[in-house]
Amino acid sequence: MKITHIGGPTAVISLGGLTFLTDPAFDEPRDYQLPGRVMTKLTGPAIPAAELGPVDVVLLSHDQHKDNLDDAGRALLPSVPTVLSTPGAATRIPGVRALENWESIDLPRPDGGVVTVTGVPALHGPEGAEAVLGVVTGFVLSGEDLPTVYVSGDNASIGLVKEIADRYAPIDVAVLFAGGARTTLLDGAALTLTSESAVEAARLLGSATIVPVHTEGWAHFTEGPDQFLKAFHEAGLTARVALLDHGVATTVG
Q: Are 113 and 143 in contact (CB under 8 A)?
C-alpha cells in the first residue's frame, strides 16, 4: 500500500491494484467568496490534476466545501469511473454513487479479488453540525491479503472513531483529517480532529499507522503538522505517525 499526499485533504492511495483519490482539491492558491465569509487556499497541489494519471475511485467525504472539492477537483470527477460519497452528493453531482453509513460496495481488483469500500459515519463539528455544514462520510477499505484502511473524512467525533474501530479492528492504517479546522459559522468550534483529539483517536485505533492530512494549505486549518507531531510526541506515540512529504509516494502499513 502506498499513499501520496497531494495537499490538504487530498491524497492518492494505491491499494489492491486500484488507485483511490481522497477529497480532490487541485486549485491554485486563491480566495473563495462565500456567503458572509471568505475561504482562503494558501498553497497549491504538489501534483496538478492533469499530471495525476488514471484514478479508479474518488472517495469524496462531502461536496459542499471548497477545501474538500474545489473547482479543479469537480472538473476531474467525470473522468473517474467510480465516485463514492454521501447520498446528498449523489443528488447534486451526476454519476456519484451514494454510500449510506455502513453500506459497502465491492470494487474488482486486477488480480480477480475485490476491494470492499464501506461508508462510515463522520460528524463535521460538534453535535448538530449537520444542520449548518451538511452530512459527511468516512470510508473503510478492506480486502483479502490487504491492509484495512480507515479514511476519516472531515470528522471531529471521537465517539464515532471508537464505533468504527470496534467494528473493524484491527485497522492497519488510519488517514485522519486533522488540523482543527474552524469557522465563525459554528463560533470557532473544531470541525475536524484537533491534534489532541487525533491522539485520542490513535489510542482507540490500536496499533494503526496514523497518516495525518488536512493539516495545512488553508487559512481555516488552525493546527499544522508541527503541532500534530508535538501532540503525538508528548503522548509517546511518535512512532505511530507517518507524516508524508507532499508529492512523494510512500509505503505505509
A: yes
